[in-house]
Write a structure and sequence with these properties.
Elements (H helix, E strand, L loop, with lengths): L6 E5 L6 H13 L4 E8 L10 E6 L6 H10 L1 H15 L2 E4 L10 H4 L3 E5 L11 H4 L3 H9 L1 H13 L2 E4 L2 H11 L4 E2 L18 E5 L8 H8 L7 E5 L4 H10 L6 E4 L4 H10 L2 E4 L8 H8 L4 E4 L14 E4 L3 H13 L1 H15 L2 H9 L4
Parallel strand pairs: 1-2, 1-4, 2-3, 4-5, 5-6, 6-7, 8-9, 8-11, 9-10, 11-12, 12-13
Helix pairs in contact: 9-10, 9-13, 12-14
């Protein structure tokens, strides 16, 4: 049993969403065993998480694209080095999460205490087709100018004592990119919170940032004929240009609803009310919406890529489809038709395979 006097430092710069919900559950678990301090180096105000003492290091990156990147290259490392000194002098272990400035944080370079880095995904824009991550010339030039961040990220990851990831798919990608061993700890879901209800509506749900990587445009094109009867609810934020393109593709349907921000309770209710949750993302590393939806008794239809292959039992808890509008639409129609039966299988699948208790038991092996 870990003594309560042990001190655990946690670093993160996670936005609202599945990653932050996962971190909250981890803190809740280990706050009974550790004295936890949360370190956030950010220009944004972070959320206070129960069970951890917040240490917010407020920063002001230089304005402008070029200046901001120069700040990241030359100023940010010194800030991380200072935080690392505090951690090295006062803590027993360090749990490190993503930094939105560099993906893997500079902190890993300066730590002298055992570090566990949760790598949800690499800097995908440097390793995947530009048509997904940088469709315009401006975006392509921006990524070229950001190339040093690719090198920074690779160096930082190699400094971690232990790297954990979220799926077999991610394990393969991370091993290939960083050339090091990566342990799998599947994310779990709080099945006591995300649970079924009995008020289904004629609604299809998709959760995630609205962008070309998540590819909601493909989803809208695939299910456009269904919008005459069903609402399509997209939960996430995105650039106006892409959102406008999606609306145009729907024929400006009144049944396309975009919600930029939701509370956890609202998200749970949306899962519960929907007949099916859709995942259209390119090479989704894990796909937390898959297990959250299944936990609420709602089947999932995903493109046949990435992490969702590991959470969906095709034909029982949902369907996998090629990135083909006709085939994808057919699978969505099937899921709607069989949503009641599949929803029960989905809920059972979560309780047996994807509960938080399973995830946290696996994490325990790294925190001993």
């Amino acid at each position: 049993m870990i003594k309560r006097t042990n001190k655990l430092a946690i670093f993160h710069n996670l936005p609202e969403g599945g990653g932050l919900r996962m971190l909250k559950s981890i803190i809740h678990r280990y706050s009974k065993q550790y004295e936890i301090s949360l370190f956030v180096i950010s220009d944004l105000k972070p959320e206070q998480i129960e069970g951890a003492r917040l240490n917010h290091i407020q920063v002001k990156p230089w304005r402008g694209f070029v200046c901001r990147n120069l700040w990241i290259y030359f100023v940010l490392p010194r800030i991380h080095a200072s935080v690392a000194k505090t951690i090295n002098d006062n803590f027993d272990k360090v749990f490190v999460n993503h930094d939105y400035f560099t993906k893997s944080p500079y902190l890993l370079r300066y730590l002298r205490k055992k570090s566990i880095y949760l790598c949800q995904e690499p800097q995908r824009e440097f390793y995947e087709p530009s048509k997904i991550h940088a469709s315009s010339l401006k975006e392509k030039i921006a990524n070229m100018l950001r190339f040093p961040i690719k090198v920074i990220d690779e160096i930082n990851v190699k400094k971690a004592d232990t790297v954990i990831c979220n799926s077999r798919f991610s394990q393969h990608v991370i091993s290939k990119i960083y050339g090091r061993r990566c342990e799998i700890v599947y994310p779990g879901v709080d099945e006591g919170f995300f649970k079924p209800c009995n008020n289904k509506e004629e609604m299809i749900l998709c959760v995630g940032g609205i962008n070309t990587v998540k590819d909601q445009l493909f989803l809208v094109k695939a299910i456009k004929p269904l919008l005459e009867k069903y609402k399509l609810v997209l939960v996430g934020q995105g650039k106006k240009e892409y959102v406008d393109t999606i609306r145009d593709a729907s024929g400006n349907s009144s049944n396309l609803i975009i919600i930029s921000k939701v509370t956890d309770n609202k998200l749970k209710n949306l899962y519960c009310k929907s007949m099916v949750t859709c995942i259209s993302a390119h090479k989704e590393p894990f796909g937390l919406s898959s297990i959250e939806s299944q936990s609420c008794g709602t089947p999932v239809v995903s493109v046949n890529e990435g992490g969702p292959l590991e959470t969906i039992i095709t034909g029982r808890t949902g369907y996998l489809a090629k990135r083909d509008v006709k085939e994808y639409r057919e699978k969505v129609v099937l899921a709607i038709k069989n949503h009641n039966k599949m929803g029960k299988f989905a809920r059972s699948n979560i309780i047996k395979q994807w509960s938080w208790s399973i995830t946290l038991k696996k994490l325990d092996t790294f925190f001993k």
